[in-house]
Amino acid sequence: GKAFWAKALGATITGNTYELTSVTGGTDNAEGIHVGDGGSFDWYNNITGNVGSVTTTDSQTHVVLGGTLSVISGNIFNSGKYGVVPSQASIAEFGSGFNVNITGNRFYVIGTTAIIAVNGFIITGNYIAWMPSGSTAAIELGDDRTMKSGNSHTNITGNLIHTNNTGVIGVKANEIEKTCDGGSKQYQACTTDDTNASTGCPGATCTGCCDTNTVGISGIQIVGNHFLWNFADAGNAIDLSQGLSSASGDLYNWVIAGN
In terms of pTM, does the model score above 0.85? Predict the structure, then answer.
């Protein structure tokens, strides 16, 4: 379920408190705030001054992005699996979860990743702390879940990122392999350039339907962040190793300075 759902042009969700709890007998996958539904006018939503908490180990997410040009500022997000991520609910929603400002929020004890960033994210002045054991990263560049996307023109500036647990990465560039450019598996991984239901792109126009991630992870600025790593076995503050895989798109036009 969803605590709040913004499905309009210029909707504002502000000053609310929500708690996501487990459901007896199964995993809930609940959402605190869902933005948009992949429609043409799910733009300019403002998510500000909310407080969300999770009291379960289920796959709860605080903000799910199914619309573009949102501003997420001044919120407190405590626990859960994800903080702010693009929607995986539909092809239309996944294709709309970009160009987002994430500013001045506090993320505490997020179980997997605080922010998964795709194209056009501005991530500035956030406090991302106490990433627990088993977390992947505070910020992932590129979405490598079921529907996949590279990342272009993202700015990560002036954040305080902290962990005291084994293997947790600060900013991680993901490996984004070939994906379908159309059909029922658009944005999903493929290995053959055809309409094969298992390995290709059913419903797409092939050949040329199973494409390398041409965006890669590009045009990234990571500037002036403070990485507080007070555990010897924590992961790298900035890790590009997955994004440099031969199966992934290229990494280019990066600025890493003053961290």
Answer: yes
